[in-house]
Amino acid sequence: MVIHDFICDNCNITIQDTDTKESHRCPKCGETMRWDLRGIAIHGNYKHPIHSDSLGIQPSQRAEHEKMFPNIRLDEQNRPIFEDFVSHENYLKRCNLVKHRQRIKTKGKKIATMGKEE
């Protein structure tokens, strides 16, 4: 299950929820919260085109997107399709979005084994 962050621009409060269909209200001021896109992570190696769920747009924004980004296709769910790293990075810069590196946990030490080792 994917957990999304939502942020209130007035109070700078962040909440997490799995439901992206309902609008979220700030618990402090009651304003509508927006998706917090600071933690965007797109996985893949560009061997196959990457369809970005986190950068999807509303159907009403499709014409504007096609005008601003003629080389970035949209799929039937209005998600941008990236063919390579450069086009992805340029898209993020032009939209004033910052992609943070994914934190990778270090593996723990092996302290015991079960059964026979060969």
Structure, described:
The termini are far apart. The mean pLDDT is 79. The protein is 14% helix and 14% strand. The protein has 118 residues and is an alpha+beta fold. The chain is built from two helices and six strands, in the order ββββαββα.
Low-confidence stretches: none
Quick one: biggest sheet?
3 strands, antiparallel
Categorize the overall geometry: extended
The total count of helices amounts to: 2
Topology:
Blueprint: E1 4-7, E2 14-17, E3 34-35, E4 50-51, H1 62-68, E5 73-74, E6 80-82, H2 85-94
Q: In a few lines, what is going on in this structure?
A:
With 118 residues, this protein is of the alpha+beta class.
Observed structural traits:
118 residues; alpha+beta; 2 domains; 3-stranded antiparallel sheet; 6 strands
